[in-house]
Amino acid sequence: MLLLPFLALFFLPFCIAASVDADHAKLVQLAARNNGVIRLDEHSYNLLTNPKRTWSASVQFTALDKRRRCGPCKEFDPSWNAIAKAWSTVPAAERDSHFFGTVDFDQAMSIFQQLGLQSAPVVQVLPAADGSRRPASGRTNPIALDFSQGFDAGPLAEQLSHYTPIPIPYKAPIDYSRVASGLFVLLSFVAALRFISPILKSRWTWAVITVLTSLVMTSGFMFVRIRGMPFNGPNGAWVAGGYQTQYGQEIQVVSMIYGTLAAGFLMLTLVVPRQTSPSRQRMQVYLWTGVIFVMYSVLVSLFKEKNRGYPFRLLL
Amino acid sequence: MPLAYSLPTDLSPATVVNASSLLRIVALALISGAAIASRLFAVVNFESVIHEFDPWFNYRATRVLASKGFYEFWNWFDPTAWYPLGRVVGGTIYPGLMATSGVIYNVLHALNLPVDIRNICVLLAPGFSALTAWSTYMFTKEMKDESAGLLAAAFIGIVPGYISRSVAGSYDNEAIAIFLLMFTFFLWIKALKTGSAFFGTLAALFYFYMVAAWGGYAFITNMIPLHAFALILMGRFSSRLYVAYSSWYAIGTLASMQVPFVGFQPVRTSEHMAALGVFGLLQIIAFAELVRTHVSSKQFQSLLYASVIGMGILGALAIVGLTYKGWIAPWTGRFYSLWDTGYAKKYIPIIASVSEHQPTAWPSFFMDLQLLIFLFPAGVILCFRELRDEHVFVIIYAVVASYFAGVMVRLMLTLTPCVCVCAAVAFSSVLDTYIDPVEPDAVEEAETAGDGAVSASSTGISTSSGSTTTSTKKGKKAAPAAQAGPLDGLVSTVSAVVSTKKGDKAQGIFGGDTRLAVILNALGMLLFFVLHCTYVTSSAYSSPSVVLASTNPDGSQHIIDDFREAYYWLRQNTPETAVVMSWWDYGYQIAGMADRPTLVDNNTWNNTHIATVGKAMSSSEEVAYPILRKHDVDYVLVIFGGLLGYSGDDINKFLWMVRIAQGVWPDEIQEPNYFTAKGEYKVDDAASTTMKNSLMYKMSYYRFAELFGGNQAVDRVRGQQMPRIGPTLDYLDEAFTSENWIVRIYQVKKDDLLGRDLRTANAFEQGKKRKRSKPMARRRAIV
């Protein structure tokens, strides 16, 4: 057993000199077998990362086995395969100078250890180390791609295209189900137009839409969406500490408070004066005034919670 | 009709009218005074100084305008910006702001009032805020009446959402733009109401002023067509609309094309296509209406309608086709990122990196608008109730602006006027209802009271029959039932309100105590609003950010003036041609205060050039040095807050430099390399080697550890303990470090005279010998 590494070491120079072309042929064959993605194990990984390689490669390190419970890996794998498949359609000359590979943790644990990878998925680009495609800067060590734009295939293909001989001809597939559902909604809307036109023509439909939109928007809905904030904090806290941030649940609470306060004012101006009985009217006036005062205090105290330095408070 | 309180009866109607108009004028004058005064905190607390970053450029340009005249300014080529490219200033700015202060300056000097141009620039924003209050008054008057107008003027005068961009010294385009926005909208509403081409033309002229003053004019360019389009859809096309829109669009577009920076954009870019499309649609509809009045045949009319719709669709398709062909430029990145919120982060990190382009969390809304934010929906509902043409405008404005303000903190500014108007409408409706002394007749009182009693008792019966409980419990239950009593009639009343027909039922409030309760509550809220605004203005929005303030242990104010100290050091100790490199945030300040050429500045038009600076900052010294030498850089300036705890420093912005550089050189700069193995952003011992070798890191922490005299060095911004032995510099020399270490300036060394590598030369200076194997061997041989 000990002999084997020694033997390998001994043969290494010869292997490299003689086998670059043979390796290449082998890789082409492997890639063709599986839609352009080479399933790498230790052996084929060494083939691919040959220090005298004339080709470049991009390798996905992943852990798809169920036991590993790697959600992002599963999410990312289809995008990776789609990019590789798109690459396998380019002319053979270019196609065979860049390879796509996948290293699964359970099939090649030692590679992970060797590279010191702690997490998955990771995508590394290996530039060509020799030949005409060797980068001018002479850097041939692996380049890690960043997933800051998510796991979508489109931006990733664009990023990878910097390293391939020609850009990857990736086009996002048309999502037929989405188109169909869009068409269905549109058609049913047109069909129902006759029946719902009184609703559409009513100003109060639009009033409700307008007010709900502005309430939700002014409660930080776009912040939560753009930043991808969670609905709740850890251990059920729903108020995010800090002036510049908020959780999803705060949208609901704050827009409810705003809505109640606005409704209080509307009641005082529109509804209460129509009351013809003085005693009932008096009751309503005090009721709504009280509601406004209490809700306003709640709002201010909630704001104080977010902005600790705020010096004012009402009831609470 | 009974009255709740008595009014003087011996006043002639003329007296009442005169007195109220006098009161209005006095109130407006006081509001203007308050608006100006509350913006002067910055001057009182600090001094009359230009704030922040962009204003420094505007100030510099205005100085050129004031000293050399308008034509010189128009043709001004600034060789010191974007070194070595230079910048054609006249053609790449909105000149409205500078022209305004130039005119004021010349008028004052013609009157023999020798006012310094700096003071005009500092006080321009407060002055225009008074005008904004007046124009908001005019606008709201068109929506409801004078009293709502006065409230709206008071609101916008002191609301923090507007003060944030218009304190004294914040000499930026927004300072005059909000006045122009509101006044153009007022003129548009006036033109629409009266159908007058005169007001349409005036609206066009102010639109032109707005185009000359602020890039946000696109908001008007799209709001007015949207309003017109909504009116057409509602079947409210009228000759008034036709005249107002056509006169505004034709004159306004031609005028706006006179601004060099805008040029042919009004006919070539997508942002302006809505206005053009609605203009075409209006012509078609007007023609159809004309034909309709002359032709009676029913078939012909239907044919006409079909052709109108067909032409409309064809026109829209033509615009789309032209966009695809490239004749019309698609949406620009800044505009597009408002719709697709992930767009900027993906494709233009430089836009996403600006802090005022971040989305808005709800506390910011409350901070900036306070009680107005919940009066706003109430006001919108009241607008829906009347729904005249001008109310449609406010409604559209409300929806659009609240979306935009949610997406970008900066656009809170466009939401603020609309919120003030709506809130004023809602608030003045409450006051109108409860101040009005007329009480309705209480004839039906007995009957309705009986009604209420019956309903209450019936609910009482139902509860008691449902449960066999003790009398005390019953009493408890009866109380909420009675409370629900007044709400019983709610549904019917709400439906009466919703139907919007003026009911013949008498309306009004009974009694004086109810009036007092509501009005006291309202006044209390207004008082709280004033306190809030004053607090926010003085504590949050009045810091010039050029001068910082901190509090001494004894409570007195301590001024931290590092920026000016460093910039004046540059001004006095370096040759005038010395090129200073810094991150783009400080470009305008260096140009304005130090008067030295800069590589990049806040006018972020050239992404590659900015990425070059980013690359130099984030690479190692050996890589950065050739870049610095190629760009003739003499000094490098970094902002470092680690000693004082100033969080807006360059190390905190560093990742954006890396990202922007990575966008241009993806194989040389990679963001993950700047994180630790665990993915944390650290500057202490655990920092990655790339981070520790980067020029920015070295310049920030050079000799930082020495300052602590053997104790543990701590970075106060990031709260991390620094390594005992700090970084060394071979290619740069420390030239200047300000009092609190906020600004650090380094001189780039010239090439070594003996042609050595600077690192080797440095090692030689320090007495370290080059490691060679041969001499060692010889020495050993001697021994």
From TrEMBL, chain A:
Gene Ontology cellular-component annotations: oligosaccharyltransferase complex
One family name in Pfam for this protein: OST3_OST6
Mode of membrane association: Multi-pass membrane protein
InterPro entries reported for this sequence: OligosaccharylTrfase_OST3/OST6, Thioredoxin-like_sf
Keywords, comma-separated and alphabetical: Endoplasmic reticulum, Membrane, Signal, Transmembrane, Transmembrane helix
Localisation per UniProt entry: Endoplasmic reticulum membrane
Coiled coil: none
GO biological process: protein N-linked glycosylation via asparagine
Secretion signal span: 1-17
Transmembrane segments: 179-197, 204-224, 253-273, 285-303
Similarity comment: Belongs to the OST3/OST6 family.
Function: Subunit of the oligosaccharyl transferase (OST) complex that catalyzes the initial transfer of a defined glycan (Glc(3)Man(9)GlcNAc(2) in eukaryotes) from the lipid carrier dolichol-pyrophosphate to an asparagine residue within an Asn-X-Ser/Thr consensus motif in nascent polypeptide chains, the first step in protein N-glycosylation. N-glycosylation occurs cotranslationally and the complex associates with the Sec61 complex at the channel-forming translocon complex that mediates protein translocation across the endoplasmic reticulum (ER). All subunits are required for a maximal enzyme activity.
Full protein name: Oligosaccharyl transferase subunit OST3/OST6 family
Organism from which the protein derives: Daedalea quercina L-15889
Organismal lineage: Eukaryota, Fungi, Dikarya, Basidiomycota, Agaricomycotina
From TrEMBL, chain B:
Low complexity biased stretches: 452-481
Known catalytic reactions: a di-trans,poly-cis-dolichyl diphosphooligosaccharide + L-asparaginyl-[protein] = N(4)-(oligosaccharide-(1->4)-N-acetyl-beta-D-glucosaminyl-(1->4)-N-acetyl-beta-D-glucosaminyl)-L-asparaginyl-[protein] + a di-trans,poly-cis-dolichyl diphosphate + H(+)
Transmembrane segment boundaries: 21-42, 88-108, 120-140, 146-163, 175-191, 197-220, 241-261, 273-291, 303-324, 365-384, 391-413
Gene3D superfamilies documented for this protein: 3.40.50.12610
EC top class named in words: transferase
A GO biological process held by the record: protein N-linked glycosylation via asparagine
Domain STT3/PglB/AglB core residue range list: 579-629
Subcellular location: Endoplasmic reticulum membrane
Chief subcellular location: endoplasmic reticulum
Domain Oligosaccharyl transferase STT3 N-terminal: 23-422
Cytoplasm recorded as keyword: no
Keyword terms, alphabetized: Endoplasmic reticulum, Glycoprotein, Glycosyltransferase, Magnesium, Manganese, Membrane, Metal-binding, Transferase, Transmembrane, Transmembrane helix
Region Disordered, residue ranges: 446-481
Annotated coiled-coil segments of the chain: none
GO cellular component: oligosaccharyltransferase complex
Bilayer topology: Multi-pass membrane protein
Required co-factors: Mn(2+); Mg(2+)
Protein EC: 2.4.99.18
Pathway the protein contributes to: Protein modification; protein glycosylation
GO MF, any single term: dolichyl-diphosphooligosaccharide-protein glycotransferase activity
Family as reported in the entry's similarity comment: Belongs to the STT3 family.
PANTHER family: DOLICHYL-DIPHOSPHOOLIGOSACCHARIDE--PROTEIN GLYCOSYLTRANSFERASE SUBUNIT (PTHR13872), DOLICHYL-DIPHOSPHOOLIGOSACCHARIDE--PROTEIN GLYCOSYLTRANSFERASE SUBUNIT STT3B (PTHR13872:SF1)
Functional description taken from the UniProt entry: Catalytic subunit of the oligosaccharyl transferase (OST) complex that catalyzes the initial transfer of a defined glycan (Glc(3)Man(9)GlcNAc(2) in eukaryotes) from the lipid carrier dolichol-pyrophosphate to an asparagine residue within an Asn-X-Ser/Thr consensus motif in nascent polypeptide chains, the first step in protein N-glycosylation. N-glycosylation occurs cotranslationally and the complex associates with the Sec61 complex at the channel-forming translocon complex that mediates protein translocation across the endoplasmic reticulum (ER).
Protein name in UniProt: Dolichyl-diphosphooligosaccharide--protein glycosyltransferase subunit STT3
Organism of this sequence: Daedalea quercina L-15889
